Amino acid sequence: MHPHHASLTAPSHAAVIARAADVIAVPKAAPADSFVLHAPLELMARVGLLAHLPASRQADAIGMIEWLTDQYLAAGDPVEAPVVVDPAPAGQLAPDLVAALADGALDRVDALSVALLPQLPIPEIIRQLGEAIVPSLAAAGHAPIGLALLARVPTALPTTLLRGALRGIASQPLWRVHWHEHDRQDGDATLLAAALRATPMLGRPGSDFIFPLMSQVQDSGVAEQLLAPVLTDRFDVRRASATITRAALWSMVHDDPSQAPYGWSHALTMPQAVMSLAGAGVRPRTALAVAATFEIGFRAAHGRVTLPEVIEPGTTPDVSFAELALAASLHEDAHLVKYTLACMHAAKDDPEYAPLSLTAAARLHEWWATV
Questions:
Q1: Residue 188 φ then ψ, to 5°
Q2: pTM of the prediction?
Q3: Does residue 12 contact residue 65 with C-beta atoms inside 8 Å?
């Protein structure tokens, strides 16, 4: 056992996490605001960071999980308990849930989620639901982050934490990345870096919300023009993921600093999550289309500096991931928590560019230190 994991088995810590998951898994009756939307993901990320903290500071981080739980309880009335679905095998319930998502049947989605999710391990949930979830721009396009974190966080968390995101998807079933669905040409994924560099700087379309940002590049044809030549069914997923991740990290470090907390942080966490699901239940072609659309969507809206032809790993800053993990664990902002863990994952997945991952995480912490 990793020495930092030892105190995670403490009954008091486990009880706090279990209570938080029980509370935060229940969606709210009102449409989710940013806090409610992020709360399940924030819990996952806070639990993920615990393993990187010294045992002497884990109690402080657990205290922030208690704080999150209390904030969620105070954030509005929960949905009514869903109707009990007749027992059925997962192979029957999953298609019913996918159909309910497409139909926008919120209560049916929640009932089926409660019936289905506890039956399945997260890899099977990804296999059964991934293609329906990944292209959605509802729930601010955040559902894939939940899938990815549940698959990656070492402490087991209940899959019912996805209930809110699934309900959010059902609330706007037509909000999707869809430009790629009619494109069947076999492209060349090695052109991805050039496509990201060619992203036009369109500016923000009057809103910083995910749906209008992505609609700007989808409805204008920019996404299809840049990315159709890139799409293919078979490509080096790890290389493509690294290409997108490096562009996102570079943007945090070198582009418009005012977009650090919500623009550039999402430019990493959203595509990174989608690419982590490629081939694990989500078709690689689908993952590449959606993740790359996310990246050019953020770059088109927020970019002020063109991506270089070659993104360098950079040099290691005078701070450690351990220090940043502790600082994020004690901070109230969900985006800082999620982004810090995402940068740690990026460094592990792409070790050569670990200095860039660390520098990007440090840059966001520096931004928060100024407010």
A1: -130, 105
A2: 0.95
A3: no
